[in-house]
Amino acid sequence: MRYFDFTITPDNGSIHPIDLILAEHPDVTREALLHINALGDGTGVMLYRLRGDSAAVSEELSDSDVIRHDILDVQGDVFHLYLHVRPGEPAGRLMALAQKYALIIDTPLAFTDGGGLRLTVVGTHDMLRRALEDLPDDIQISVEQAGQYSPERPHLLSILTDRQAEVFRTAVEKGYYEIPRRTTHEDISDELGCAPSTIDEHLRKAESRVLSTLVK
After folding, report:
1. Which of 56, 59, 171, 191 is placed for a possible disulfide with 176 were both Cys, Cβ 3.0 to 4.6 Å?
2. In angstroms, rounded to a whole number, what is the distance separating the alpha carbons of residues 53 and 84?
């Protein structure tokens, strides 16, 4: 079995009308899509990890076309959102492609800073190639990595935003986590062209997400 790591970017920046509500909501940030599944009646279920105001999101969804939603596991400003949604695009076509070519969508799926969704898809080389050729025209795709699939393949960085992953990688490469420490926030900020306070914020968020995933 082979895997493709790639980022898909729908024209409107969302994979479903309800996802668009979350993407445009001023009080919430989409951190990850932990599960997604298409049901036999054409509806779908999704489980998000979000950061922000859970009450505001719940109120917004109550006035939407969602079939059901539940707020779960609220810890500070981080919470999970279960959604049962009606058919919507491009999620419907993407799930149909996964079923047509017998592909596995490896979770979690991470949202990028540019409105894309980074995911890993698993299948035979031929089926993966045919599925990519069959993608709708209104979805941009960028293949980042491909190889032999192992269920134990580490994918911790997939839960980070593009910028968080870049800062985290740079910190590791420059020896920020070595003992004794070989670099500083100022050194990293000089290399990446941003303020030391921004580096500190990105590293703290990246560390929190990675460590939280490891201990769950």
Report:
1. 171
2. 20
pLDDT one-digit tens code per residue, 130-166: 998 998 888 888 887 788 887 765 566 666 777 888 8
pTM as predicted: 0.70
Same domain, 185 and 95: no
Residue type, 90: P
> How far is residue 112's CA from residue 103's CA, in Å, rounded to a whole number?
22
Q: Are residues 166 and 136 in the same domain?
A: no
Domain that holds residue 49: 2-148
Q: At 140, is the secondary structure helix, strand, or coil? A: strand
Q: Where are the beta strands (DSSP E) in 53-127?
A: 68-75, 78-85, 104-111, 117-123
Cα 44 from Cα 83, distance rounded (Å):
8
